[in-house]
Design a protein that fits this description.
mainly alpha; 2 domains; 6 helices
């Protein structure tokens, strides 16, 4: 399934390249005209991203839920879904622990 943002770009390209109407291009690609004309007004404070990155690097075993909790304690009024979206966009994941080798197993028996 193609996301609406990609469809918007394709419709805009077809309208400018081939000169067909926006209505016809939207119908061709299955996109509502209101979706094509929608402009996001979301504003995101840049210090939120910096704080999220800082907390995530300081605590590599914390997921987005615990990072959200720590951000709330720092005074950011932010929802968990927004934290999760930014967490994903920044490419952050919970880092796995290194495997602990307690003993070595010899191959070939006991000599």
């Amino acid at each position: 399934m193609v996301r609406p943002g990609a469809r918007k770009r394709v419709v805009h390209w077809v309208v400018t390249k081939f000169g067909i109407s926006e209505r016809r291009a939207c119908r061709l690609f299955g996109l509502h005209r209101s979706t094509k004309r929608y402009v996001s007004r979301r504003t995101e404070p840049p210090e939120l991203r910096a704080a999220l990155r800082e907390v995530a690097y300081a605590h590599p075993r914390f997921g987005y839920r615990r990072v959200h909790w720590l951000l709330e304690r720092r005074g950011f009024a932010v929802g968990q879904r927004r934290v999760r979206r930014i967490y994903r966009e920044e490419g952050l994941t919970v880092r796995r622990r290194r495997e602990c080798l307690k003993f070595r197993v010899r191959v070939g028996g006991f000599s």
